[in-house]
């Protein structure tokens, strides 16, 4: 049976060009700064996001942690959304390792934070208060259905926050999806943040790795923090080579994933027993809900899995499906057939 795996864009296989590049990669010891392929990837990544320097890290979680470690000291406060990946899904690393207190504000359904609430949350000088040291944004926003924040939305938070001397970090795990979805240059989304993390191993299909970018001083501190958390890799050019292919060849095709996500969402919306907020379907993520009592969420997941379709259950009768390299329009049509069979009981 053909498996149509929509659990995440992290399940992508490396492309043939990536495998070839990995095979031929020139390598060295990256802790000594001597891996030419890692150095090439870091220079290319910095250029793409319009920052002075970049650092190759093992994962998005490590990139966010290293960024927070570099911006903050123990006891500082970090403002972020209550649906931020860093708050919900990174095992509390910011608290456990960076020793910061996370101050959450409600994310709006489109992934935005209300700029007035952000400014009001910044602590004044008072003997009782921890200092606010960082604001974190996420674009596209995973738990908000892959919504993309425009440069104007980003600026409405970043400009006043930075005017108050507080840096902004962007969890841009899928920021390339945001740029393709909005049709804006990536640099428009990153120019008003101090640091950005993005992933090579999601929609861009590389097997491993993420990037942290910022100014030279920030990246030099982040490099030391990466070493501290055990992320100093040696002949990492073997995996960085795939990252270079990801940046050079895999960005424009994200538009296909967005078209397929739209097709899936519109099909799901027609199914009796399911609901989708089509407004939030702006990139490769589709969050949909089970709105019938005929079955449980686990009946849906199991029923679909029996038909070769994998989706993620994310709680509260909601599910997530993510399109990616390797999923074609015909797979979406097959998946929709499976949904109709499982949820409506018809082929
Ligand atoms: N997200 C994964 C899971 O952890 C949920 C996924 O399948 O979507 N920021 C954002 C916005 C992310 O979506 C993710 C991964 C990360 C950070 C962490 O990246 P990794 O998985 O590389 O540590």
Give an overview in words.
The chain is an alpha/beta fold and 347 residues long. It folds into two domains: 14-249, 3-Layer(aba) Sandwich (Aspartate Aminotransferase, domain 2), CATH 3.40.640; 253-344, Aspartate Aminotransferase, domain 1, CATH 3.90.1150. The chain is 41% helix and 17% strand. It contains 14 helices and 13 strands. The strands form three sheets. Strands 2-8-7-6-5-3-4 form a seven-stranded mixed β-sheet, with helices on both faces. Strands 9-10-13-12 form a four-stranded antiparallel β-sheet. A hairpin with a 2-residue loop joins strand 12 and strand 13. Helix 3 (60-71) packs across helix 10 (216-228). It is globular and about 60 Å long. The relative contact order is 0.18. Bound molecules: ligand TLP. Residues 8, 10, 59-61, 85, 89, 138, 142, 171, 173, 199, 201, 210 line the site of ligand TLP. Ligand TLP binds at residues 8, 10, 59-61, 85, 89, 138, 142, 171, 173, 199, 201, 210.
Largest sheet: 7 strands, mixed
Write down the overall geometry.
globular
**Assigned CATH architecture of the largest domain:** 3-Layer(aba) Sandwich
CATH topology of the largest domain: Aspartate Aminotransferase, domain 2
CATH superfamily of the largest domain: Type I PLP-dependent aspartate aminotransferase-like (Major domain)
Strand content: 15-25%
Structural class: alpha/beta
Gyration radius (Cα, Å) is 20 Å
Low-confidence stretches: none
**Bound ligand species:** ligand TLP
Count structural domains.
2
- Quote the distance from N terminus to C terminus: 17 Å
Assign the CATH class of the largest domain: Alpha Beta
Binned, the helix content reads: 40-55%
Give the rounded overall mean pLDDT.
Answer: 98
Q: Order of strands across the biggest sheet?
A: 2-8-7-6-5-3-4
- Pattern of helices and strands: EHHEHEHHEHEHEHHEEHHHEEHEEEH
Number of helices: 14
